[in-house]
UniProtKB/TrEMBL annotation:
It comes from Polioptila caerulea. SUPFAM superfamilies: E set domains. This is NPC intracellular cholesterol transporter 2. GO terms for cellular component: extracellular region. It comes from the Eukaryota. The gene is Npc2.
Length: 150
């Protein structure tokens, strides 16, 4: 029997969580949900050193305060108080470990990848990660300091 992609994603997320330490993060406007934990793997210290050409595992545990049919992630690199969109391979939260529709009062583990392209500049910045519901309201928003390095 071949495991489903979701089962593989959940297993990878569990493995990544076992290796990851919960991060100190800034909540930047979670309205329709509350963040319980943010993990970035590997990121043993902060600011997270993000190596070019590497992909990082993101795992956010949050509780929803609302019902929503879907969710969408938006990721930014914040430099000098300007949000620069940061593309991620899968913006659909319902394909990132969250079973949709999202139910009020339930906890979810959002799992995704943050690829750091080799053409990105070596720079210190803030990663800002938002997950919005189907009304474009924030299920969660968190920020962490990072340093992109070769």
């Amino acid at each position: 029997m071949v495991p489903s992609p979701l089962a593989l994603l959940l297993a990878l997320g569990a493995a990544a969580t076992a290796l990851a330490e919960p991060l100190r993060f800034v909540d930047c406007g979670s309205v329709d949900g509350s963040i319980q934990e943010v993990n970035v793997s590997p990121c043993p210290t902060q600011p997270c050193l993000l190596h070019k050409g590497t992909s990082y595992s993101i795992n956010v545990t949050f509780a929803s305060k609302i019902e929503s049919q879907g969710s969408k992630a938006k990721v930014y690199g914040e430099m000098l108080h300007v949000d620069v969109p940061f593309p991620i391979p899968e913006p659909d939260g319902c394909k990132s470990g969250i079973q949709c529709p999202i139910q009020k009062g339930h906890s979810y583990s959002y799992l995704n990848k943050l690829p750091v392209k080799s053409e990105y500049p070596s720079i210190k910045l803030i990663v800002k990660w938002e997950l919005v519901d189907d009304q474009d309201q924030m299920l969660f928003c968190w920020k962490i300091p990072v340093q992109i390095t070769s």
